[in-house]
């Protein structure tokens, strides 16, 4: 049997929407997602889960109420659960997310930026 | 407060051992690990968990009893729980793993390649 690799660049070529994570794989009850982001997201938190950000291309700041972290390609950060944060990307940035299945991108915040969940590419 | 990015290349520069995963981050009860691998690993499975492989640099084959998947940089594969597999890298390959805290690299197989668990860098 031939098994198929999941190619990140090929998956990124399949969508252009910003702030709209796409699922590329599942591991137990977790999902691996890709997102293209640009501009300022909304302040939000996830009460029930940490959230892993890994930068594939570009630069992303994650702002916190008491500081921020500036991430470039090949850098990672885990936002602890319950911690208010706001991702900000001046230019388009490509990121990988790992989080439990069912997590909504805007967490506790009601927003026009809330994306449909569980969209596979 | 300044938060510190986790830089993958900087972390890879800190160890040389093959088949000895190092923890770089935790997310809930999961760990993100880096490993340098070369040669043939042992056949094994993980009865309780899927295992995510993401190739950072180089090439890795994951052999199964009924086939294999060949992965290059920027490619990912999730090995389903209970599935016998054997990673093989002709040349040194740098990989990222995501799996629950406590998973032993050799799974069900007793081997000289069983690595100490939970080593942070």
Helix/strand layout:
The structure is a homodimer of 121-residue chains.
Chain A: E1 6-7, H1 8-12, E2 22-27, E3 30-40, E4 51-57, E5 60-64, E6 67-71, E7 75-79, E8 85-100
Antiparallel strand pairs in A: 2-3, 3-8, 4-7, 4-8, 5-6, 5-8
Summary, kept brief:
The structure is a homodimer of 121-residue chains. The first copy, chain A, is mainly beta and 121 residues long.
Fold and architecture overview:
The structure is a homodimer of 121-residue chains. With 121 residues, chain A is mainly β. Helix content of chain A is 4%, strand content 47%. Chain A has a domain at 19-100: Sandwich (Jelly Rolls). Chain A contains 1 helix and 8 strands, in the order βαβββββββ. In chain A, strands 2, 3, 4, 5, 6, 7 and 8 form a 7-stranded antiparallel β-sheet that branches. The longest helix of chain A has 5 residues, at 8-12. Chain A binds chain B through residues 1-9, 24-28, 30, 32, 49-52, 62, 64, 66-72, 74-78, 81, 98-100, and chain B through 1-9, 24-28, 30, 32, 49-52, 62, 64, 66-72, 74-78, 81, 98-100.
Keywords for this entry:
homodimer; mainly beta; Jelly Rolls; seven-stranded antiparallel beta sheet; 1 helix; 8 strands; 47% strand
